[in-house]
Amino acid sequence: MDRVSFNEGWQYRLKVNPFDELSGEVAPYVDVAVPHDALISRERDPHGDPANAYFPSGTYEYRKVFSVPDDYDGDPTVLEFEGVYRDAEIFINGDYAGHRPYGYSLFTIDAGEFLRPGEQNTIRVECRNGQDSRWYTGAGIYRDVWLHTAGAVHIPPHGIRASSTDIDDRGAIVDVAVQVVNAARRRRTVEVHVRVLDYTGAEVASGIAPCTVRPADRSLSRHRLYVQSPELWSAESPFLYTVETRLVCGGDELDRADAAFGIRRLQVDPVNGLRVNGQPVKLRGACIHHDNGILGAATIPEAEERRIRLLKDAGFNAVRSAHNPISVALLEACDRLGMYVIDETFDMWNAPKTNLDYSLAFPEWWERDVESMVLKDFNHPSVIMYSIGNEVTETGSAAGGIAGRNLAEKVRSLDPTRFVTNAVNGLLAVMDDAKAIAAQRGAEADEATGINTLMAGPLEIMNEISASPLVTERTAESFGVLDVAGMNYVDSRYELDRELFPNRVIVGTETFPTNIDRTWALVQRNPHVIGDFTWTGFDYLGEVGLGRTQYLAEGEDAAGAPFPWIAGWCGDLDLIGNRRPASFYREIVFGLRSEPYIAVRRPAPDGRVASGGPWAWSDAISSWTWAVEEGAPLEVEVYSDASEVELALDGEVIGVMPAGPVHRFRAVFEVPWQPGTLTATAIRGGRRAHETRIVTAIGTPRLQIEVDGEERADAHLFARIELRDGAGTLCTADEREVVVDIDGDAELVAFGSGNPAPIGSYQSARNRTFDATALAVVRRRGGGTISIRVSAEGCEPGEIAVNAPA
Predict the structure, then answer these.
(1) pLDDT value at position 806?
(2) Distance (Å, rounded) from C-alpha 658 to C-alpha 494?
(3) Is residue 787 part of a domain?
């Protein structure tokens, strides 16, 4: 089928009751281009739901008017929606055309019967959000829309599946399955031509086979092709091939389609762990939500690629989609850049977690939503595992065993080439019993206690419960239906299960960032534990303040994060992609960084003590620029894998302290602040080795801009804005309100910082820096030169020009 973008020309508004509209209360439509998040621009409610970042609930209407040619004769026409949040209802020319409850599933609508040739046609989409998620969902048509058209005999959307088997050094068998649809009234026989092309476009294998299709039916044409000396896909070498397919009848080409794929071999067992192309791999994993920070939920391909690139640069080689199917754009980025993926289905099955969540639709829709995810993922070599759920409450019951088996077998029937896991939380699987145990130990665990509250309690209690015979017995069936046992915050079972279940392979599907040194040591010394996925790799909207540090007076209890908090604040990278200290610590633990890293804790208010849960890193940044009096004591953290680290200020040694694995890769010094240069030196075997320096910023800051993005006429550009002194040092103690102005054929899409509690909107051209940085996202609307100018009171303005082909 021919595929064209259907993203332009949309309008949207908050849904209006038709009776109110008749009385004159007309809400105007606003022009938008999709992907579009209808929620991110709405005013937040200080009394709203902190799980959804204080954004309100709502129902939204989208519409688009488009023309249909006079000679349209009813040939197949399909609209493909990659994601609409949520409970999408599609109307074409006023007629109901389809519905999809799940907000994360790709789905199609057969539009042909509703179209009116020679007229202006209208498509309308209704969708909604509210009381249906534990995190920020966004709303609206937040992923791409495509229009597919074809003749009577054609290849449907996602009608090509390519997989590789029997791989060795000399060659690989590539199995290609092509769906052929016949919408005509008589039987048709066509030749199916298949070619495999390498990344240079050279043909490396081909085949032709006839395929006969009955009227109003479809057939599957299979091809078994041999590729000599294949380039194998892995995270380190992400080689991609293309399978090109044509349908030919009587010498005429009826349709063509192609799909990218990779050739790679996956193996997993408890002795060798995970192997990719025969090589052992430990998954250095990051859990990620679907939002793109200040862009909200809108799936912008350039933003998805930037996110994966930044995560890979920070040392990760794998991501887990938490807790819903990942976008096509992000999968394509993982394929190109080399990132392993666990794609996840649902956050709940039959039992709800929030009032109006997907559990209401699960019994009727789960099979179709699993089919949608596998259909989307099949050709992507980055996907190595499917997860059938996250912390599903039924996993400790017989009913959960039945549901899990049904889900796992459904996935296997659709794709036997990948592994099946489930992110099981042992504590949640026995929640009622756990509350009783916690109560016996004096913990506050009444009926209102949530899972995050329990898990934020003493870690040894949680680990003890997770390793108990009760959890062993209750979860045995749920783990037994899987290829890989996914465990959320259950590292106490890693070595225990090596003895109890010698055939069990484990992956830490979700772990505390503060425990990475301990969990990674378990991963390294246990072959049956294949990786660790931290919560989280990239900061996200909603679940506000999950990882925040609070400053409490004596006797004061911790509280939830109030408005204007917007983010979880537990990512290794913040909302705009800045690496936080935890990211550099993790890189050292992974063995990927030799240089020490210096992080300085923000000064605590007088009489208050810093307090944070297991998702909270220390409230520190890598800066020696502080608005404090000289001599004020500051706590300095130095991360290093060396046995010792030395800290010096302006060449004067402050002290030498042990670090390395035995001391959790960390040394903490108290240093009286004075401006200058702070230097940390790794000492290995008694000899000075690598060193790192941070210096104090001096003078009035200057605005600097650096742009990241493709030179393409319709690209999104990411302009990083920083306050730096004349020597290039970030002025972290001198935050400013910055104004962004765009000249040329472009628009400002979002502007904000990594601040987890910002004031104002990401749609404003005026915002404050946070730790001296901010990010502006600019969308081109055509070619030529655009200029991005930034200004702030008391600073010399900055400007950068960006060119693109006309």
Answers:
(1) 58
(2) 29
(3) yes
User: Do both 197 and 113 map to the same domain?
Assistant: no
Q: Which of 345, 389, 150 is nearest to 247 (CA)?
A: 150
Residue 429 has pLDDT above 50, yes or no: yes
pTM of the predicted structure, to 2 decimals: 0.96
Asked which of 149, 176, 204 is the last residue of a domain, the reply is 149
DSSP designation for 324: S
Give the DSSP letter of residue 568.
-
- CA–centroid distance for 363 within its chain: 26
Query: pLDDT value at position 213?
Result: 98
Beta strands in 602-686, from DSSP E residues, in sequence order: 609-612, 620-621, 633-639, 644-649, 652-658, 666-672, 677-684
**Residue among 336, 343, 339 at smallest CA distance from 290:** 343
Predicted confidence (pLDDT) per residue in 326-385, tens digit:
999 999 999 999 999 999 999 999 999 999 999 999 999 999 999 999 999 999 999 999
Tell whether the model's pLDDT for residue 805 goes beyond 80. Answer: no
Amino acid of residue 540: Y
Please give the DSSP secondary-structure letter assigned to residue 602. P
Could you read off the pLDDT of 90-147 as tens digits, one per residue?
999 999 999 999 999 999 999 999 999 999 999 999 999 999 999 999 999 999 999 9
How far is 374 from 527, CA to CA, in rounded Å? 28
Residue 460 in domain: no
Indicate whether 319 and 402 sit together in one domain. Answer: yes
Residue 455 predicted with pLDDT over 60 = no
Q: Is residue 45 part of a domain?
A: yes
* Residues 244 and 96 placed together within one structural domain of the fold: no
48, 50, 52, 58: CA torsion to nearest 10: -10
Does 797 lie in the same domain as 663?
A: no
* CB 52 within 8 Å of CB 85: no
Report the C-alpha gap between 76 and 73 in whole angstroms. 9
Question: Do both 124 and 197 map to the same domain?
Answer: no
- Label residues 188-207 b or e (16+ Cβ within 10 Å = b): bebbbbbbbbbeeeeebbeb
Q: How many domains does the chain have?
A: 5
- 294 with 425, same domain: the answer is yes
Is the peptide bond preceding residue 36 cis, with omega within 30 degrees of 0?
Answer: no
Q: Residue 706's domain spans which residues?
A: 702-802
CATH of residue 247: 2.60.40.10
Residue labelled with tokens 């349709």: 255
* Whether residues 644 and 718 fall in one domain: no
**Is position 463 within any domain?**
no
Cβ count within 10 A of residue 8: 13
Q: Tell me: do 510 and 656 sit in the same domain.
A: no
Tens digit of each residue's pLDDT (9 = 90 or more) over 103-115: 999 999 999 999 9
Query: Which of 664, 695, 726 finishes a domain?
Result: 695
